[in-house]
Amino acid sequence: MRVVSFIGPSGSGKSHRAAWVAREKDIDFIIDDGLLIRNSQIIAGSSAKREATKIASVRRALFLDDKYAEEIKQALREHRPDAILILGTSESMVDKIAERLELPAVNQKIDITDVASEYEISQAISTRKEKGKHVIPVPTFEIKKDFSGFILDPLQIFRRHGKGTYQPIGEKSVVRPTFSYMGKYTISDYALRQLALYVAADINGVAGIRSFSAENLSDGVIIDIGLVMIYGYNIKKVLEEVQQKIAETVERLTAFNIITLNVSAVSLIVPEGQPVKNPASQTGSVSE
Q: How many CB atoms lie within 10 A of CB 203?
């Protein structure tokens, strides 16, 4: 299968131009925001725009739910497309979608700047920020049932066909998702740090967190943690346990998609008194 990525910032107009890009590249299938689309018809999935929060929308778009990912994979097995266009805000996002859906690696990459001018992109981003409107590359009748109660506007797409005449080439739909109405909410880096500290404190061999940083990107978060370790433990095994448990807890409790979680041992302390002989049973207080 030929896999083509179509990349651009959130709200830059990817969905608006997806059908045109697909036709130009002789592609019938599109994956966009949780939907599998074939020739302007939804084959499988439900739009991430239906989710109540932006974070949940990102998780839906990345197919992080195993049951939902299996639904799309089953549709792909049935239709066996020769080529597919995957929309994403970054290369890593598209790669993750391809991995979750067990698709081949990306063969070709197209950037929004390849098909739209800087002015068109800035206008699209401005509309997204000011009006909260999102485009879905299918006709309105395709999604009216799923988006009952949402603001829905059909968007006719035309191409210039000679002087003063325009040829219709399709219809897209404009929606305002639930999270656009409800406003924003945020989870601070400090809250994430406290959550990581709570998890790490329950793991033998960890004395505390020395440093913590979180970088929020459009498709998830990158977390870097520096740990204070206790002398006598297998550092590699402890780091692996911390990494796994913090990642599971943060994703479960915050709905964040963790792109990368880096854990490093930056400091080492020894227990008060004599050296640890049996680390697994050590429960006394420690100091640097």
A: 15
Q: How far is CA 198 from the centre of its chain?
A: 26
pLDDT for 106-124, tens place per residue? Answer: 999 999 999 888 888 887 7
Place of tokens 């990912």: 69
Phi, psi torsion values for 96, nearest 5 degrees: -70, -40
| Angle formed at CA 110 by CA 15 and CA 84, multiple of 5 degrees | 65
Q: What domains are there in the chain, each with its CATH number? A: 2-182 (no CATH), 189-287 (3.30.70.1350)
Q: What's the token pair of residue 265? A: 């041992």
| Residue 258 pLDDT greater than 70, yes or no | yes
Q: Where are any strands of DSSP class E within the chain?
A: 2-7, 29-32, 35-38, 41-45, 83-88, 108-111, 134-136, 152-160, 166-175, 206-217, 220-230, 258-271, 286-287
Residue at token pair 């008060």: 272
Instruction: Tell me the pLDDT of the chain averaged across its residues.
Output: 77
Query: From residue 209, how far is each of 64, 111, 247, 272, 283 by CA, in Å?
Result: 28, 39, 15, 19, 18
Residues 259-277 pLDDT 10s: 889 999 999 998 876 555 5
Q: How do residues 177-218 score in pLDDT, each as one tens digit?
A: 555 544 556 678 888 899 999 999 999 999 999 999 988 776
The CA dihedral of 183, 189, 192, 198, to the nearest 10 degrees, is -140
CB atoms within 10 A of CB 172: 21
Helices (H), 80-188: 91-100, 118-131, 140-143, 178-182
Distance CA 133, CA 198 (A): 39
Core vs surface per residue 61-98: b (16+ CB within 10 A) or e: bbbbeeebbebbbebbeeeebebbbbbbbbebbbbbbb
C-alpha–C-alpha distance, residues 19 and 6, integer Å:
11
Phi, psi of 82 (to 5 degrees): -75, -30
